């Protein structure tokens, strides 16, 4: 029986929803507009080329990286765009690992090179917050290499920008900037029944038209239903495991309870994905669990 889908617009935190809105040549202007808001005062993107999201290592046995989206602008700068729905224990580590591929790929083969690099940006769209309790209203986290003594930027061509969507608290009447509107859309699109009055720019006209569930063809509807089921299963499993971890932590009076529960949640998600026949390398990328551990499930 097909899953009942409530609401008028797709959920951008599903794999299908994110790729539908941002991952096609037809909708490239949506991604360009969004990235330019994330970049802020930096030189703006005029055009993008979608690149192969699967990055191989130098040797056959090397671990590869699979991005949600991977793009290059007209200046040769690379953009890794990652959507992360549930918290992953080593998400920061994965971000660093992923960024090494577009850095190393710039080295020409068999010729002299002066090591001059193009900028690499990792944009993480997170449906969770990092665990620090400071500045709980700060929803944009930008990371670069710094001189720890002076606080000055040591290297500005490797940038990680994380958008912690749950920390964005503004309501429609409080939206001031174009970036505010993008954050508002990402957080609330699947809850809207009508297009909000404040989102009248042309780019949002296109976004809402593309996001209408009623306009999906039969194949896309089936794909979205499956993607939505994975999204809901993962969220339910994660929520339950965290709840149990907190209970266990209270009963045993030790800090390790949360971490054990988090690992249990990732294992349960991995079991569900494995049961669907998804490749171990993809499950490993999604959960942060090593393939050796997944093989034993």
UniProtKB/TrEMBL annotation:
InterPro entries in the record: RpnA
Domain of life: Bacteria
Family matches, as Pfam families: PDDEXK_2
Name this protein carries in UniProt: Rpn family recombination-promoting nuclease/putative transposase
């Amino acid at each position: 029986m097909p899953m009942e889908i409530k609401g008028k617009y797709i959920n951008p935190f599903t794999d299908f929803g994110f790729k539908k809105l941002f991952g096609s040549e037809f909708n490239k202007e949506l991604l360009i507009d969004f990235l330019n808001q994330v970049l802020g005062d930096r030189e703006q993107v005029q055009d993008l080329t979608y690149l192969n999201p699967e990055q191989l290592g130098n040797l056959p046995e090397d671990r590869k990286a699979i991005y949600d989206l991977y793009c290059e602008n007209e200046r040769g700068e690379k953009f890794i765009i990652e959507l992360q729905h549930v918290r992953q224990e080593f998400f920061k580590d994965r971000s660093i690992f992923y960024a090494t591929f577009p850095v190393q790929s710039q080295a020409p083969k068999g010729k002299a090179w002066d090591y001059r690099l193009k900028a690499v940006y990792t944009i993480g769209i997170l449906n969770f917050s990092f665990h620090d309790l400071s500045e709980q209203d700060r929803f944009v986290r930008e990371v670069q290499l710094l001189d720890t003594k002076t606080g000055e930027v040591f290297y500005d061509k490797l940038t990680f920008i994380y958008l912690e969507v749950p920390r964005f608290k503004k309501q429609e009447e409080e939206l001031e900037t174009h970036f505010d509107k993008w954050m508002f859309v990402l957080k609330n699109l699947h809850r809207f029944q009508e297009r909000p009055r404040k989102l009248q720019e042309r780019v949002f006209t296109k976004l809402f038209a593309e996001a209408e569930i009623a306009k999906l063809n039969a194949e896309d509807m089936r794909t979205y239903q499956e993607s939505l089921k994975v999204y809901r299963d993962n969220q339910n499993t994660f929520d339950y495991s965290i709840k149990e971890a907190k209970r266990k932590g209270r009963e045993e009076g030790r800090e390790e309870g949360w971490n054990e529960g988090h690992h249990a949640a990732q294992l349960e998600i991995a079991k569900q994905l494995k049961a669907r026949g998804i490749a171990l390398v993809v499950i490993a990328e999604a959960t942060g669990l090593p393939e050796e551990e997944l093989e034993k499930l």
